Amino acid sequence: MAAEEQQQQSGDNRGWSEAQLRNYTFATKAIPRMSHSDPRVDALIDNEEPVVLTDTNLVYPALKWDLEYLQENIGDGVFSVYVAKTHKFLYYDEKKMSNFKNFKPKSRREEMKFSEFVETLGKIDQHDERYYLQQTLNDTVGKKIVLDFLGFNWNWANKQQTKWNWGQLTSNLLLVGMEGNVTPAHYDEQQNFFAQIKGYKRCILFPPDQFDCLYPYPVHHPCDRQSQVDFENPDYERFPNFRNIVGYETVVGPGDVLHIPMYWWHHIESLLNGGITITVNFWYKGAPTPKKIEYPLKSHQKVAIMRNIEKMLGEALGEPQEVGPLLRMMIKGRYDQPYS
Fold it and tell me: Does the N terminus or the C terminus of the chain have fewer Cβ atoms within 10 A?
């Protein structure tokens, strides 16, 4: 996109510069930024498209959160902190690790108190391991954090949930990361309001119809829903369709709320030299499957079907590694060329 487009769209540089963005080989378009009262917002959300909402006040009481405030008030509970040797934090499902005996995660999860997390951040330098706290907010946090949480704009959030017939709110994930941390491209099976609290994050999204350009890991792999492509050094021999990728991009700052629709891929990075970032996700189950299916199917529906087929075959075969060969056998010479 450019960052220039992003800055022009927001009317100023919003506290960040183009020099803080990593360079990638693919083109991007700007995600719209607008007031939540703009009538175009409903059309975008209804059409399963991303949009940045600038004035929802969704997490207004949390805008005062910083490391010091959280350390004083979040309580003595234990938090999940991921530790990596690089800036990339590729998610993995620990329960699926037994399916792939040779799998070695690129990060590890540690449990620590928030005070320990802050102390660790104060000791490390750019050559040490990197840390990323990712913890669901629950009733173990201190009273001030609970009061801040209760002060979120739940009236607006609940109206959105009702308007779009989404399912229940499943969790609020607190994310506290170092500058330059990257969550590589992946998709979720829930609707997400991504609320930025402190610092700035670059968010690059890709619609579900670019599934074949992003080469996700198999469903049974620990990195299910994650792209295999290294954006900083793409292997076009293994992943040739990545040449065709086109993203949708924005930089969110304190108070911004990005709607990330279900099945939309998203690559998230804290800006370089931008300090600590703090975010809270609002994850909702999607709307129930309509009783009457409309054809042709939408891209996200096709992704859901593909996932279900992979799961079903893995269970039927009793061995996840046999799914790929069976699928290749099914299509080889039958679906991969024009019929005569």
Answer: C
